[in-house]
Amino acid sequence: MNATPIPSLESAVAARRAYFEHGLSPSDLIDDAIFRSWTRCTAADRREREAVEFQPVGHAQLRQLRDRSNDLLRAAREPLERLARAVSGAGYAVLMTDHRGYALSVAGAIDQRPHPMRLAFRPGVDLSEYAIGTSAMSCALTERRPVRVFGPEHFFSAIRGFHCAAAPIIAPDGTLAGVIDITRDSPLADPGALALVHQSAQAIERELFRALPAALTLALGWHPAPTVGELTLLVAFGAEGELLAVNEPARRFIGADALSAASRFEDLVDGRFGDCAAAFLRGAEALPLRLRSGLQLYATLADPPARPTPVTRPTSHAAPVTGSLEFGDPAISVRLDAGCRALANGLPLLVLGETGSGKEMVAQTLHARSRYGDGPLVALNCAAIPETLIESELFGHVEGAYTGARRGGMPGKIEQADGGTLFLDEIGDMPLHLQARLLRVLETREVSRLGSVTNRKVDCQLICATHQDIPRAVREGRFRADLYYRINGFSLRLPPLRERSDLRALIHALLTGIGNGSRQLSSDSMQLLLSHPWFGNTRELKHALCYADAMADPDDALLPAHFPEFSAPDALPGCSPMGGLLLTLEEDAITRSLQATNGDVRMAAKMLGISRATLYRRLRKRATTEAVSRSVQ
Ligand SMILES: Nc1ncnc2c1ncn2[C@@H]1O[C@H](COP(=O)(O)OP(=O)(O)OP(=O)(O)O)[C@@H](O)[C@H]1O
User: Fold this and answer.
1) pLDDT category, 360, cuts 50, 70, 90?
2) How far is the CA of 169 from the centre of ligand 1 (A)?
3) In angstroms, what is the C-alpha Rg of the chain?
4) pLDDT tens, 117-153?
5) Which of 257, 250, 251, 214 is nearest to 232 (CA)?
6) CA of 518 to the centre of ligand 1 (A)
7) Which domain holds residue 624?
8) DSSP structure string for 537-579
9) Same structural domain for residues 26 and 144?
C-alpha cells in the first residue's frame, strides 16, 4: 500500500489554494491521486460550486447491477458487516460500489448522519468521479489502490463535509470488482481507517478466491507458518494443475511477465502439481516451493478442509429437517459446498445417486442457496411423463401447434425457469431425438416453442439428476456425448445411505419430523437401523420410521417390533434392486479417478467424494468379484 499523507485541514486548504488560485501542483500537500482527480475534473470543465445529485437508478436497473455483482455481494456480506461493527462507533457508514462506482450495498448506522450523506449512501446511487467529483471511492476506482480523501480535498464544495477512505476490490482474474468506502462527517484525522478498509477489501478478495472451483489454492509466504495479517499471496489451480487465478499481491510479487507466460503449476514452480497436491492430501501443513525465478517460498493450503464438527442430537425445536442435507458427514458436506460453488460460477450441476438418496432435495437446497434462489425452481421428471409429451412440456407450444395444443399456447418448462433453476430429473431417460434440441437451447440460451419460428432468450441455471450410468448410455448410443459434457459441468455424487457416516444423526433428525417430533428410539432399534443396508436410501428409512411411529403407542419408544420386516441384506451387491446399474456407474467412476490420479487412492477417494476406507472396500470387493468370475470361467 502506498503511503499517503495524513490529512489535516490546514494542508487540504493550502493545497486547494495552491491549485485553484495559483495553478500550482500541491503534490507535497496532498495525495497525488487527489491531485490527478482534480486535474481530470477541471479538464472536464466542472466547477467547484456545481450542485451534486445523488440520484439512485430505478429498481429494475438496480436489480441488474446487483445481479451482475452477485458473487461480489455474496463474498462481501460478512467482511462488510464486520467492518461496519468496527467503524460505526467512530461515526462511519460503510458502502460498497461496483467497478463503475454504483453503490451496491450500505452497512452501518446511516440514519443519524447528515442529509447529503443519507442521500449518497443508498443502493443504486452513482458515486463515480463523473457524478460526484473527487472522493476516496472515485480515486480508489481509478488508481486501484487505497485512498483517503479529507473534507476540502473533495472537488465539489457540496460534499466537503465528508471524510472518507476507500480501497479497491480486485477480482481473481485481476479485474476491478468494486470498492469499499467508509465515510463520516467528523473532520478528525483517523489514520487507522484506511488500514481497516484495505483489510476488509482483502478479506473480500480472499472470499472471491475461495468461491473459485479450484482443486488447490495455495497461500505462498516466506515462512512455513504465515502470521495473521501478513500479505497473502494466493494462487489457485484446477484439477490438472492449470493456473486458474492469482490474487493482486501475488500478481505483483510474481510479476506480470512471468505470469503472462504461465498457464500451469509447472510454469511457475520447480516441481510437479501432482506431487504437491498429493503431499497436501497426505496431511502436509506446509511445503517448500521454489519459484521459477529462484525465490524459495513456503506453500500452505489457503482453504484447509474444515474439521468435521461433532454431531449433537437435534431437539424437536431444531430447524425442519427438509432444510438439512447432511448431519456431519464430511464427504457430503465437501461435495455440497463444491456444488454450490460450481453453480455460483455458472457450471451446470449433475447430481448422481441411487434412488431415494436425496437428489431432488439437493436440487431444491442448492437452488435456494444460489443466486437464482429468488427465481422459480422448475422441475421436469423425464422418466415420469410420456415421451410424446416431453417435447411440449419442455419447450412449450404455440396455439394450433398440434391437435390438443392449448388455446393461446403454453410456455414450456425451460421458459418458466427464466430467472431461476431448471431441474431435469432422470435426465438419462430423455429421448434421444429431444437431446439435440435441448443441447441447442443450452448452447444458445434461446428457446423456441413448438410451432413457433421465433426464439426467446432464457437465463436460468441447470441442475440435472439421474441414477443412470450416463457414460455407459453414451457408449451404447442412447445418450449424446455432447449433451453429457454440457450438463456435467460439475458432478455431485450422493453416497448411498449405507455409506454415510452421519446415519445416526440423520435418523435422529428424521425422527423429529415425525408425529409431534418427540418420538424416542430404543437402542436396539437404533442398532437395527444402523445395520440395515437401505437400498431404498433416505426414502426407505423415512417410510420405516413413519411405519414404526404408526405401529407404536403414542408415548412409547420405537422398538424393533414396531418396524416393518426388513428382508435380509443381499450378500452380493448385484442382487440389490439397483445393483447392476449402480455397480457399472461406480466401476466407471472408480476406474477413471484412479487413472486420473495415477493410482493414488487418497486422491481418487477425494475426487469421488467418498472416504478412503470406502474406496478400499470397493477395490477389495472388485478384486473378490473378479477372482470369483475367473474361477467360474
Ligand atoms: N437429508 C434429508 N433429510 C430429510 N429427508 C430426506 C433427506 N434426503 C432425502 N430425504 C427424503 O427422502 C425422500 C427421497 O428424496 P429425493 O426425492 O430427494 O430422492 P431422489 O434421489 O431424488 O429419489 P429418486 O431418484 O427416486 O427421484 C424424500 O421424501 C425426501 O424428502
Assistant:
1) very high
2) 41
3) 30
4) 788 889 999 999 999 999 999 999 999 999 999 888 9
5) 250
6) 22
7) 574-632
8) HHHHHHHHHHHHHHHS-TTSPB-GGGSPPPPPPPSSGGGSTTH
9) yes
